[in-house]
Specification:
Two copies of one chain form a homodimer. With 893 residues, chain A is α/β, with parallel strands linked by helices. Chain A is 45% helix and 16% strand. Chain A has 34 helices and 29 strands. The longest helix of chain A is centred in the last third of the chain and has 26 residues. Chain A starts with a strand and ends with a helix.
Chain lengths: 893, 893
C-alpha cells in the first residue's frame, strides 16, 4: 500500500505528508471532511525515488494503478479512453515542501482524436473539447518531449496572423480554427520529437507520470531547493485526479478565495472568479475576473459577482470555506472550480498575509475560540512584526505595477523609508533642514564630522561601507533609514551631481530621492510612504507572549532616547549599551583622540576626565529612563584605529591640544593601524593596555549611578567586559571595579545593584567558561563575534563568499550572520555545560544582531539561556519569538 | 618537623624541594653523599608563607632554632656570640624554582664589636676579621634597613680619597683604615635608619631571617616571577649555615668549577680559583682568578693553578666533582671554598652549557654508562638544536663586553646572522652581488618585485611588516636571515641614506650592516660570525631520538631545494607545501593576477593554464626529491587582496594582457581589498568561488604525479584543503579531486597514492570533526590560524597587547603564537575525540609555527597526534622533542 493511495483513505498525518506531499495530503483531508474534491489517488514519493534511482517502475505499480483508476471510473460513471464518455485525468506533482511552479503537471490526459467527440457531446461544447485537446498536446509535448513552448506560441500566432488578427483573444477562434490549431500542434509534436503524439491514453498516462517524477530533478527545481535549503532526497509524489472543467460554458468557472482579507485580516471572503474558465486562466491574469461577493462589487461597475450570478454555487463555496478554515484552524487560500453548476475544491492551503493581517487574524481566532492563545502565538511570523513599526514604501511589485523601478541598489543598513532632497554635506543638510526641507544626505562614507547632518536628515545614502560602517551604525542608532555600499553610486562633489548608475542621468543637489532602508533600493524622485499600520490587536498578542515566554527580552540601546523607545516596545531592561558609540560626537571623539595620543600621564588624565564627565551625564539619563531596570553597559569595544584622526585639520587640532608636532601625532595615530582590526587591539585588550581607559568608564558608570541614587532613583548596573579571552583579564578588571565602587559608594545603598559580566564572544572564553563563571555574575554571548571567530570569517568581508556559498554553490542553508550557526550554538552549549556544572544558576543570554532573529531565539530557549537582547525595532518580534520558542520547547517539538 | 630541617636528615625528594628550595635540597643531598658542607639547617617555605601572611613567627620556631644552632656549635666547637671562638653563620634565601640574584642573603651573622677579636685570633688575621665585619654591616644595613648601597660605596671612596688613592684595591687598605671603615659603616647605619647596628647576635639573626623571607615579595623578584611564569604562592625557604672563609690567608680561597667544559662538552674540570678570597669576589670578577688545573694554565703565564699550588685541596675538590656528577647524573656547576687548607662545597647545581656541549655530554654520558639513552635524550634542550645549524653572532653579552651594542631592534623574522653592504633596491643588490659583495637589502617593505634582490642578498631588513609579511615569509623560504618591522628605521631614498634610530648617525648605501635574524638586533658595521658548530655526537643522538619517538616528523617545504634540505635534516616527508608561495615570482604573480582579474572565462582559463604548467614543474621536482615519501600540498591559501597589483606599471600590463581599460582593472583589483584579510576571502573560500582556481591546482598536482610515475618514481600525494568551515566544502572539493584523478590517471598504478586531508584551523571545523572525518583521510591542525580564531586575535596585530599582557600586566605566561595555548589544545582534543569516536584510526597532526616548538610537540604527544610538521631549521629539534615527549608520556609525568 505504499505505492498508491486513494483520496479517501485514512493515514497518519506525518506519514501522509512524507508519502503524498503537502498538496495531495490536503486533498485527502478535504475528502475526509466531506468537501467535494475530484476523485483520484496518489503515487507515493517512495515510488518516485525508486524510479529516479533505477529508471524502472515497481512491478506492482501497474496493477494497482489500474485498480485505482477503475474506482474513479465507477464513481464518475466514465471510462478512461472511452469514446462516448471519456474520463480525463490530471497528473500532478507535489512534494512535502511546497515548491510553487518548480515542477510539472499535465492536464486532460486521456483525450485523443477518438475521445474528443465524447467530451464535446457530454458538455455540448465542441470548442471547449478542442481547447482541452490542444492544451493537452502542448503540455505533453513541452513536459514529456522537452519541445520549447515558444514553438507552440509561434504556431498560434501564425494562425491568428493568417486570420488577419494577430492579437485576437484565443476565445474568439472559430471551431475550424481550433481544429486547424490541434492539427498544427499534433504535427509540430511529431516533427520536433520525431515521434507522433501518443493517441493511446495509457501511453499518455505513463509518460506523464514519468515526467512528473523526473521534474523533481530539473535544473529549476534543483536550484530552488538549494536556495531554500530543501532536502534533496525527499522527492515529489504524483497525484492522479479526475479532471473537472470550469470552461464548459457560462454555468462553469474557476476562482480563488481567501477566507479572510489577507491585507488587513477582516473577516469576510476575499477572492476572484472567472466564469467559463479553467484555474490556470485565473492565475495567468489575461482576463479580468469578477468579485466573489456582492459587497465587494465596486459600485457602478457592471461586473456581477459570483454571489449574484450563481447564488447556490456561491453558498456551497462559502460553506466549504468556513468548514476548511475551522478544520485547519487558519485562514485558507482556496482554489475552486464550478463545473456545470457544481462546485469542486481543487486545493486549499494556509493563506499568506501581511504582518498586520496575521496579528489581527491570530487574535480574532482566539476570540472566535478557533485557536488557543498558544496556537495564536505560534501562528504569527515573529520577524514580520518589525514591519508594523515603520513607515515604509509600497511593495516592490506594487511599485513596479506603477512603472516605478529602483535606480540603484545598496545594502539595507537601517530599516524604514524616506524621501527628501539630495544634499552632499552635513552643513548643507542642516541649512536645508532649517528651511523645513526633508533631506537625504548622500556621501561616499560618513564620519564623526557628519553626525550633525545625519541627525537632521531623513535618510543617509553612501557609496562605500558595509552593514557595520559608520553610516550604518549611526543611522541605526538614530533610527534613520540608511542605504550603504551602493557600488554604482558616483558623486561628483565639484559639479554637485550624483550618478546612481552608469545608465541613469545624473541627479543634482536638491533633486528628490527616495531610500528604502529595508531593501536597499533607491528611487529617483519622491515616493509616497505607506504609514506604519497601527494594529489594535498587537498589544493583546504581546501581552499573551509576555505571559508565555520564559526568557527575558532586553534591548540594545546606546542613548537615553533609545532606552525610552525600548521601554515603549516592551523591553525589560537595556541588555547592551555600547559605550563606543558615545564617542562619535566630534567633541568627544576629539577628547578620546587626545587621551589616546597623549604622551604624558597628566595630559591623558585631563582628557579622560573630560570624557568621564560626558559619559557620566549619558549614563544618568539612561539610568533615569530605565528606573531601576537592568542597564547593561559594555566597556569600550572598538578597534583603536577607528578612533584615530585622519584629516590634517583634526591632526593639527590634536597636536595643538597636546603641544606636540603634527608629524609626531600623525605617526602616533598611524601606529594604531592594524592588518585585521576586528581581531586586534580592541575590547578588554585596549581597556587594559591603554592606561586609565576602562578605569575612566567604570568611574563614570558608578558616579552616574551614585548621582541617581542620591536622587532616590534605583539603579541596576550590569558592567560587561568585551573580548575576554583570559580569566586573568576578568580578575584584573573586577579588582578595578571593586576599588572604584568602594571609592564612589562610601555608604551602601539598597537602591544600587551592580553585577559584573563577561562577553562570551571568543571560543577561548567559551572553553574556559567554568573558570570565568567563578569571577563573573553573568554571561552575555556575543553572536556576531562568536560567529566571526568560530567560522574564522570577518563579517565585513564574508559577503565575498557567503552569497556564493548559499546560492550558486548551495554549500550552506542560511547566512550565519543572520541565523545562529549550529556550531556557534554548539560552542555556547559547551560553555553553558562547563559553567553551570560549577555554578548551576549562572545568568546567561545572547546579544548582538542574532538577538532579534526568531531562529536564534529558539536556539536560545533550547540552550536554556535566561535572556536575549534585541535591536529596538525587533523587540516585539523577539518577545513573540521567545514565547513561540517556549511553546515549542514545552510541546517537545 | 616542618619548621626546621637539619642538613643531614632524610626526606622525600619532592617534599624536600617544596619545603627547602632547590639550593638547600642540594646541600642535603651532598651531606648524604659525605661531601663536606658547612653544617646548617633550613627554615621551611611554610614558615616563610605563614610569616608573610601574619607577620608573626610560629611559637615553636625559636626553641627549635636554638636547638639546631646548638647542634652546629657542638659540631664545630664554636659558639654563636662567643667572644673567644665565635660561630658565624650565613642566612640565605632559596626557592623551589631558582631565581638567581633576585632575593637576599646575609653573611657573617654573629660578628660584632666583641666577637671580632675572637675571629681575628682564630685565623690569626685581624684584617680578615675587620673585612668580614664591614661586609656584615653593609649587608645588614642594605637588606634589613633598606639603606642604599651607594652610600656605603661613597664612604669607602671618601676614605680612599683621604688616603690619596681613590682607586686603590680594598685589599691594600691598612688595618687602621679598615677599623676606620667599620666605624664609618656603623655610624652610617645608625644615621640613615635612626637606630644603631645591632650588636646582639640574636637580633642580627632574627632580623636577617625576616628580611630573607620578605625578599620573596620585593619588586624585582615579583617582576621576575611574572616574566618567568613562576607561581606566586610557593615562597622561599631560609637556610642558616655556618660560615667558612676563603679569605683567611693564602692557604684559603674560593672557586667555581664545572665538571666538564660548558662550551664544547670536553670531559675535564673547567673553572677558576681566587686565593684568599670569598666566593662573591670570584663572581664579582674584580680580581683575576687563576686556573684550576695545571693543563689549563696558559703557557708562559705566571699564574699558578690550584692543582699546582694546593695539590691536596685540588685532589679533594676533584674527587667531590666526580662524586657529584655521578650522583646527579649530569654535569655540575660547583662553588667551593678552601678554608685553611680544607675544602668545603657550598653549592652544586646542574651546569648551563651550549647546545653543542649539551649534545656532546649527553652522548658521552651514555657511553660512560652514567645515563640511559632515554635519560640522555631528555637532557638536551630540543629548541637549542636550531643553533647548531646556523652561522650566528656571538652572544649579546659577549658583544656588549666588546662594546658592541645594537643600533636598532626589529622583529626576528628569519634566523641566522649576516653582515653586508647596505643596498636600497633589488637591482642594486644584484649588481653589487655580481661584483662579489655581500649585501643587505634594506627596504620599507618588500614585494614580488624584490625577489631577485632578496635571492642574492645575505639578509633582508625592513622597517614595516610583521612576522608574516612578505619579507619575512620569503626570507624564511629562502633561508635568509631577516629582520622586519623595525619602527625606528627611516630610509631616505633620495639621499640614499638610512637612519637606524633617532640617535644614530645615518648610514650611506654601501656602508656595512649586520643583522641577527634570531634576535632582531641590528648592528652598524660588520661583525664576525661564529661558524655553525659541527657536532659529531648529534647524529647519534638523533638516531636514538628516531628510535624512541612515536610521532612522525614532517617538514615545511615549499620548494624542491627546501625538500632536499628537509631530507638532510631527517624529515620523513613534506607535511606542508604552501602553494601560494609559488606565486611570488613576478611572471607567475602576473599570470595569477590576470587569471583573477579576467572577465571572460576563456581568458581566465588561458592564464590558469600557464600557472598549471608552472606549478606542475615545481611539483615534479618536489616529488622526485621526496621519492615516494608523503608530500602534503596545501591548496592556495592567501587573501586574494595580497595577490592584487598595486603599481601603475603592473596594472597597465594586466590591462593590456586582458584587453581591458586600466581603470577597470584597477577597480576590479580594488574590489578584492578587505577589512580583515586574514579572516576573509582566502583558502577554500577563494578556491570554490573563483572558477577554476583549485581545479587548476589539483590538475597540476595530479599531472606532476603522473609524470613521475611514468618515469617509475613513486609519489605519495596528500592534498590539504585550507580554511575549511563546512563539510559541504570538503565534499565539493573531494568530488573535483576524484574527477580530476580519473581524468589524469586513466590506468591505476601502485606507484601513486593519494590522500585527501582537511586543515583543521577554524573552531567550526574542530566542532564538526566527526562529520569531516567521514570525508577526509587525515587532519592537519593549523596552529597559527587556530590560535588566531580561538583567541580572536590576529597574529599580525596581537603584538599590540600580548607583550603588555605577558610583561607589565602579568596576565599570561607565554606567547600563544609560540607555545600552543591550553584552550587551542583543548579544542584539538575535542576535535580528536569527536572524529576518532567515529573513525578510531584517523591520521592527524599539527602544522604551522608551533610544529617546531618542544612544548607544543609535547602537547601533540599527549593528544595522541600522529605527526608534527616543523619548519626546516627546527627539524632536528622537533625529532628530539618528539622523543622526549614520548619518554615523558611513557613515564607518566
Amino acid at each position: 500500500m505504499t505505492l498508491l493511495y486513494p483520496l479517501d483513505a485514512a493515514l497518519d498525518r506525518d506519514l501522509r505528508l512524507r508519502l503524498l506531499g503537502t498538496k495531495a495530503a490536503g486533498l485527502h483531508e478535504m475528502v475526509a471532511l466531506g468537501i467535494p474534491v475530484p476523485p483520484g489517488f496518489t503515487i507515493t514519493t517512495e515510488v518516485g525515488a525508486e524510479f529516479r534511482k533505477t529508471g524502472k517502475w515497481p512491478d506492482t505499480l501497474a496493477p494497482e494503478l489500474d485498480c485505482a483508476l477503475e474506482q474513479i471510473e465507477q464513481r464518475l460513471g466514465r471510462r478512461f479512453g472511452d469514446r462516448a464518455n471519456p474520463l480525463l485525468i490530471s497528473v500532478r506533482s507535489g512534494a512535502q515542501v511546497s515548491m510553487p511552479g518548480m515542477m510539472d503537471t499535465i492536464l486532460n490526459v486521456g483525450l485523443n482524436d477518438s475521445t474528443l467527440g465524447g467530451l464535446a457531446s457530454r458538455h455540448g461544447n465542441e470548442w471547449f473539447a478542442l481547447d482541452a485537446y490542444r492544451r493537452l498536446i502542448q503540455m505533453y509535448a513541452t513536459v514529456v518531449r522537452n519541445i520549447g513552448i515558444d514553438r507552440f506560441q509561434f504556431r498560434l500566432t501564425a494562425l491568428k496572423t493568417k486570420l488577419g488578427r494577430p492579437r485576437m483573444p484565443d476565445s474568439e477562434l472559430s471551431i475550424e480554427s481550433m481544429q486547424e490549431l490541434v492539427a498544427a500542434y499534433l504535427s509540430l509534436t511529431e516533427e520536433a520529437s520525431g515521434s507522433p503524439f501518443p493517441q493511446d491514453p495509457d501511453t499518455q498516462l505513463w509518460d506523464s507520470i514519468a515526467a512528473v517524477f523526473k521534474s523533481w530533478g530539473n535544473a529549476r527545481a534543483v536550484r530552488y531547493r538549494r536556495m531554500q535549503g530543501i532536502e534533496e532526497a525527499i522527492g515529489t509524489a504524483c497525484t492522479i485526479q479526475a479532471m473537472v472543467f470550469g470552461n464548459t460554458g457560462m454555468t462553469s468557472g474557476s476562482g480563488v478565495v481567501f477566507t479572510r482579507n489577507p491585507s488587513n485580516g477582516d473577516k469576510h471572503l476575499y477572492g476572484e472568479y472567472l466564469p467559463n474558465a479553467q484555474g490556470e486562466d485565473v492565475v495567468a491574469g489575461l482576463q479580468t475576473p469578477v468579485p466573489l461577493t456582492a459587497s465587494a462589487t465596486a459600485p457602478g461597475k457592471e461586473a456581477t459577482s459570483l454571489e449574484q450570478s450563481s447564488p447556490e454555487a456561491f453558498a456551497a463555496v462559502s460553506g466549504y470555506c468556513e468548514a476548511l478554515e475551522r478544520h485547519f484552524g487558519d485562514m485558507q487560500d482556496i482554489e475552486f472550480t464550478i463545473e456545470d453548476g457544481t462546485a469542486y475544491i481543487l486545493q486549499t492551503r494556509v493563506a499568506k498575509r501581511t504582518a498586520r493581517a496575521a496579528v489581527r487574524i491570530a487574535v480574532d481566532m482566539v476570540r472566535e475560540q478557533v485557536l488557543s492563545k498558544e496556537q495564536a502565538l505560534v501562528r504569527v511570523d515573529a520577524s514580520s512584526l518589525e514591519q508594523l513599526l515603520q513607515a515604509r514604501l509600497p511593495s516592490e511589485r506594487e511599485l513596479a505595477s506603477r512603472g516605478v523601478v529602483p535606480a540603484a541598489t545598496g545594502l539595507p543598513a537601517s530599516p524604514g523609508a524616506a524621501s527628501g532632497r539630495i544634499v552632499f554635506d552635513a552643513d548643507e543638510a542642516v541649512r536645508s533642514a532649517a528651511e523645513g526641507k526633508d533631506v537625504i544626505l548622500v556621501r561616499q562614507e560618513t564620519s564623526a564630522e557628519d553626525i550633525h547632518g545625519m541627525k537632521v536628515a531623513k535618510g543617509v545614502f553612501t557609496s562605500a561601507g558595509g552593514m557595520t560602517s559608520h553610516a550604518a551604525v549611526v543611522a541605526r542608532g538614530l533610527g534613520k533609514c540608511c542605504v550603504v555600499g551602493c557600488g554604482g553610486l558616483r558623486i561628483d562633489f565639484e559639479r554637485r551631481t550624483v550618478h546612481l548608475s552608469d545608465r541613469a542621468e545624473p541627479l543634482q543637489e536638491g533633486d528628490l530621492l527616495t531610500l528604502d532602508g529595508s531593501t536597499g533600493k533607491v528611487y529617483a524622485g519622491a515616493l509616497d510612504l505607506v504609514a506604519s499600520a497601527t494594529v489594535d490587536e498587537l498589544a493583546e498578542l504581546m501581552a499573551w507572549a509576555d505571559e508565555t515566554r520564559r526568557m527575558r527580552v532586553y534591548a540594545e540601546a546606546d542613548t537615553p532616547q533609545a532606552a525610552r523607545a525600548a521601554l515603549s516596545y516592551g523591553a525589560e531592561g537595556v541588555g547592551l549599551c555600547r559605550t563606543e558609540r558615545m564617542f562619535f560626537a566630534p567633541d568627544r571623539l576629539f577628547a578620546m583622540q587626545c587621551a589616546l595620543l597623549a604622551v604624558e600621564a597628566e595630559q591623558r588624565s585631563h582628557w579622560l576626565g573630560e570624557l568621564e564627565r560626558a559619559q557620566c551625564d549619558d549614563f544618568v539619563e539612561i539610568f533615569e529612563a530605565m528606573n531601576g531596570r537592568p542597564v547593561t553597559i559594555r566597556l569600550l569595544d572598538r578597534a583603536l584605529q577607528e578612533l584615530m584622526p585622519e584629516d590634517e585639520r583634526s591632526l593639527r587640532a590634536i597636536a595643538d591640544a597636546l603641544d606636540r608636532e603634527i608629524e609626531e601625532v600623525a605617526q602616533a595615530a598611524a601606529r594604531h593601524r592594524e592588518s585585521n582590526p576586528a581581531f586586534g587591539h580592541r575590547g578588554v585588550r585596549a581597556g587594559l593596555t591603554v592606561p586609565g581607559l576602562y578605569d575612566m568608564q567604570l568611574r563614570a558608570m558608578l558616579r552616574a549611578a551614585h548621582r541617581c541614587t542620591e536622587r532616590r532613583t534605583a539603579v541596576t548596573l550590569e558592567v560587561l567586559v568585551p573580548m575576554v579571552a583570559f580569566t586573568s583579564e576578568v580578575v584584573a578588571l573586577r579588582a578595578v571595579l571593586d576599588r572604584a565602587q568602594a571609592q564612589v559608594f562610601k555608604r551602601p545603598t539598597t537602591l544600587f545593584k551592580c553585577r559584573f559580566g563577561t562577553m562570551m564572544e571568543l571560543p577561548r572564553a567559551c572553553l574556559i567558561a567554568d573558570e570565568l563563571a567563578q569571577h563573573t555574575d553573568f554571561f552575555s554571548f556575543g553572536g556576531n563575534d562568536l560567529t566571526q571567530t568560530v567560522l574564522g570569517a570577518s563579517r565585513d568581508d564574508a559577503n565575498r563568499f557567503l552569497p556564493g556559498y548559499r546560492n550558486e554553490l548551495g554549500l550552506i542553508a542560511s547566512d550565519p550572520f543572520t541565523v545562529l550557526d549550529p556550531q556557534v550554538i554548539e560552542l555556547i552549549r559547551i560553555a553553558l555545560e562547563r559553567a553551570r556544572g560549577l555554578r548551576p544558576g549562572l545568568l546567561a543570554g545572547l546579544c548582538g544582531d542574532h538577538g532579534g532573529s526568531p531562529d536564534s531565539i529558539e536556539a536560545c530557549e533550547r540552550l536554556g539561556l535566561d535572556f536575549v537582547c534585541a535591536p529596538l525595532s525587533q523587540l516585539p518580534g523577539a518577545r513573540l519569538a521567545a514565547a513561540q520558542a517556549r511553546i515549542r520547547q514545552n510541546s517537545g517539538c
